[in-house]
Each structure stands twice: as structure tokens, then as C-alpha cells.
Design a protein that fits this description.
elongated, 6 helices, alpha+beta, 263 residues, 5 strands, binds zinc ion, Pantoate--beta-alanine Ligase, Chain: A,domain 2, five-stranded antiparallel β-sheet
């Protein structure tokens, strides 16, 4: 179960990474051209046709269209596809290295800033004379600070919201995992106590660390002495309490056995 949940989180982070990769392509292309990066929908760079919603799905849309523009049939550079895939992998790597916390958000943000700064410079050198003249004509030259600032603000908003959304999801998963660990520990200790001879039964407290969470397991055994019962009717009652802390919250799980006959 744990591995599937982990794989699902990794998959989500990969998808977020490809979305950002797609946005990076757009930003590095448009920033040197002094084009708006928010309001204008993505378009094919050869026929200028606006892309539809399904054309915007990273990685998949490229594969489905066989790397060609749906509208003009012009080949789309594999650079876009690779950028999306690699970016997805980079985000997953960051997640595996830094875990799920504020550090991850900051690392991704710094990565985005460096990526767009360098990418925009590279894309600037690939502009045609025509495009350069167009910018000069519009009297927009030199550094494009305003575009960069807008890009950075958007990155921050995008990333913060993406991480807040998945963080809540992740919190719930952690809670589920912690609880299932507690149930496992309680059942294990209960089974152990039930399988123990009456004479060697005793109460005990032990600790266990699972998935980086500390669990305190208290197994309480109530014996009914032979003063109360005939030897063959001896019964025992076992309570197992598992206590643990998660995100500053103190949680517990209890199991109680029915009064059972002694083995
Ligand atoms: Zn096209």
C-alpha cells in the first residue's frame, strides 16, 4: 500500500514538473520577444495558430500528434518534449532529495529562476533578424526586467498553489500510513500476548520506529488468578495501546481482547 501511495505522489510531482517544463518553454521563448506570458494563449510558432486545451497537455499531446503541429503539420522541435520530460524528472529528483517541505518549494523556485534567466538568454540568440527589428521598432530594447519580474511572480504563485494543494493531500496520506502502522503494531503485540503461556504473560511497554514515526506500545495483561477461578477456567484479558505523535498531534490506537481461555 505504502509503495503505491508513494508512486502516486511521485507521479503527481512528475506531472506538475512537466507542466512547469511546458511553461518554461513558453517563458523563455516569449521573454526575449517582450511578449506577454500570461494572457496570450500558447500558439504554434510557425503558423501562429492558437493551441486548444488538449494541445496544452504536456508530453502526451506531443506524442499523440507525432511531434507535428495539428494545424499546419510543421514539425515541432523535440526540444519542447524533452524539456517537459526532463523537468518532470528534475522535480521528482528534488522531491526524493528534499522530501515534502518548504525546502522543496524554495529549491524549485530557485531552479525556475535560474532556468528562465539562462533559457531566455539562449533563446534571445536564436531570434531572427526580423523579430529583432520588430522589437526595435516598438522601442523595446535592453533588459526585459518587467517581463522577468512578472514571470517570477507567476512562478511563485503557481508553485506555491501547486505545493499547497499536494501538501494537504500528502498530509492525509501520512496520517493514513501512520494509523495503519499503529494498527499493525497493535495486532502484532496482541497476537504475541495471546500466544504466550499464562505463566509467562506479563504487561510491558515497548517502542518501535516505523516510517520515521516513534510508536509507544503498551500491552496490559489482566490475569484472573486461580483464587477466582478453577485452574482450567483461567482467563486473561489483554489491552494493547499504541501511541504516536504526528505533526504535533498526539494520536493512539487501542485493541482489547475478549476474556479468553488460557492456552
Ligand atoms: Zn502550426
Amino acid at each position: 500500500m505504502l509503495i503505491f501511495l508513494n508512486l502516486f505522489v511521485i507521479f503527481c510531482i512528475f506531472v506538475i514538473g512537466t507542466l512547469f517544463g511546458s511553461f518554461f518553454s513558453l517563458a523563455t521563448y516569449r521573454i526575449p520577444r517582450h511578449q506577454d506570458i500570461i494572457a496570450t494563449r500558447s500558439y504554434c510558432t510557425s503558423c501562429k495558430h492558437r493551441l486548444g486545451f488538449f494541445d496544452l497537455i504536456p508530453v502526451i499531446s506531443y506524442l499523440v500528434r507525432g511531434g507535428k503541429c495539428k494545424y499546419c503539420g510543421e514539425k515541432i522541435s523535440i526540444r519542447y518534449f524533452l524539456l517537459e520530460v526532463i523537468n518532470g524528472m528534475v522535480f521528482v529528483a528534488f522531491y526524493l532529495i528534499f522530501g515534502y517541505n518548504l525546502k522543496l518549494l524554495l529549491v524549485c523556485l530557485v531552479y525556475a529562476i535560474i532556468f528562465v534567466l539562462i533559457g531566455a538568454q539562449i533563446m534571445k540568440t536564436k531570434m531572427t533578424e526580423e523579430e529583432k527589428n520588430e522589437i526595435k521598432k516598438n522601442n523595446k530594447k535592453g533588459v526585459f526586467i518587467s517581463e522577468l519580474v512578472i514571470a517570477l511572480i507567476i512562478f511563485t504563485i503557481f508553485m506555491a498553489s501547486a505545493f499547497i494543494l499536494t501538501r494537504n493531500y500528502n498530509k492525509n496520506i501520512n496520517k493514513m500510513i501512520a494509523r495503519s502502522n499503529a494498527i499493525n503494531l497493535a495486532v502484532k503485540n496482541m497476537e504475541m500476548a495471546l500466544a504466550t503461556d499464562y505463566d509467562s504473560l506479563y504487561s510491558y511497554t515497548t517502542t518501535s520506529k516505523v516510517d520515521n514515526i516513534d510508536y509507544m506500545i503498551t500491552t496490559s495483561v489482566t490475569k484472573f488468578s486461580d483464587e477466582d477461578f478453577d485452574r482450567e477456567d483461567l482467563v486473561k484479558k489483554i489491552d494493547v495501546q499504541v501511541e504516536y505523535m504526528l505533526n504535533g498531534e498526539s494520536l493512539e490506537f487501542n485493541v482489547k481482547s475478549l476474556k479468553g481461555k488460557v492456552l
